[in-house]
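Technical note accompanying the year-one report. For the benefit of new consortium partners, we illustrate the data format agreed upon in the data management plan: each record pairs a sequence with a structure-token string. No post-processing was applied to the example shown here.
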Amino acid sequence: MTHWNDGYITDIVYTSNYYRETSPVWLATASLVLGHRPPDLSKPFRYADLGCGHGFTALTVAATCPNAEVWAFDFNPAHVESGRIMAQRAGLTNIRFQEASFADIAAMDDSALPEFDFIVSHGVISWVSPENRNHLLSIIGRRLRPGGLAYLSYNVLTGWAGMVPIQRLIQQLARNSQDRSDVTAGQVLAYLDRLKDGGAAFFPATPEATKRLDEVRRNDTRYVAHELFNADWNPLMFSDVAEAMAAMKCTFIGSATLTENIDSVSVPPGVQTLMADAKTTIMRETLRDFGIAQGFRRDIYRRGAPPLPPFEHQALLNDLELAWTGRQPEDPFTLATAVGTLTGSSDVYKPLLDILVKGPLSIRDVRELEPFAGKPLVELLQAVTLLLAAGYAQPMLPQGGTAAGRDATERLNRVVTNIHVTGAEIPRVVVPITGSALNIDLLETVTIGVILAGHGPDIPTIARHVLAELTSSNRSVQREGKPITDPADALSVVIEIVTTFMTVRLGFWQRLGVLPPPRPVKNPRASR
């Protein structure tokens, strides 16, 4: 008898993560930059997340885009319950969590599901059986509307080939363990260290596999277990996915990893020459993967892929606006890519970053400024793409979102920040003007939660509530890595932190719509 989990581990839940590339605004922006008409986010749209986990991505879409109808599917009831609870507490009525396997969804009658403008599936198709992968792709083929975008991310064989023997050994070790999977993960990694230190020739013979293993072990043990313990673990080639998607009438248009759409900064020069001579997209992308030992792809597919007419393309690009993420500008601008560190010209990136830090960066406005005035739009687009890729900026929703979106986002952020009182940890906040989320440290998340709860406005009051929340969740304030045991001393440290937040970070979060704007100061003479 086949178990309901079909070989996927379920004794521990997955980590709660967020990936900017899965947001509608990121996918729409990537599609636009790549020359294809994106779904119009100013109008009602539908979004589906296949294999949603705890559903933080779907919740973010539902809160920031009240005009969206969001569906989130997962076969694990624990994940679905978690998502439903958060949606209910945040009062989100435009999201539906459904417990269903890919086979269940594929078997649904067409009348049971609508057509979607976006279908995303992050980190799924390499970790399920070929049968389940086919079910997932068939759902996209049936339910993605013409002009809709599909996002698929997966491990690639060119970067994981050396890990195949290690993963097989890990599975054998895990099967012999009676412990919970996250506990077993730590034991398995320790065993591999013993094997390596014992002189096993495999490791020096496959340095890329050792590098991958080191990358994996830097993650939460729950992530390690979900990455390597499943019965099905199948790094794929681009051709495997592209050919299957072509059968679903979906065409590859580019990568959500934006640098990979610019060959000059993402592929060795000699490989670029071979790619230029390639006759098909499949050959081009396969050469790319060999060129950089690609380990993970974030592919965007479109149902129907006619290029935008030039005039309409330019008009839509002019409307594109970016918001600053809070990452401090560097001069010179640098970006780590698959082929090394890129250093950008200060003449190009410094004025862009200066504008970005002060407020929204509009493509229409920037085109009138030096050094871009009178120059081809493609030069500005490349610079903007690299700012996004480096994490300095996020694309904004049309008109910076809506008042309803800000209200719903505030409710969701209250739920997220309240979770820390229970001892859990989601160090991020949802940003209403970008339809996305930003990862921040735990203490800043708690401070934002305290302000959203209405505590303050004076700094000592905010600091006392922050310290109370840390204490109630068995967390401590630390100095140089050591807990501060004296309550007065701990409060003094928190007051310093909150003072910095209120003087340096408050305005930033207000501009993003995460915190309410400052109240206008009443003029006492105006009432006379």
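Partners are asked to follow this layout when depositing records. The chain is about 45% helix and 15% strand.
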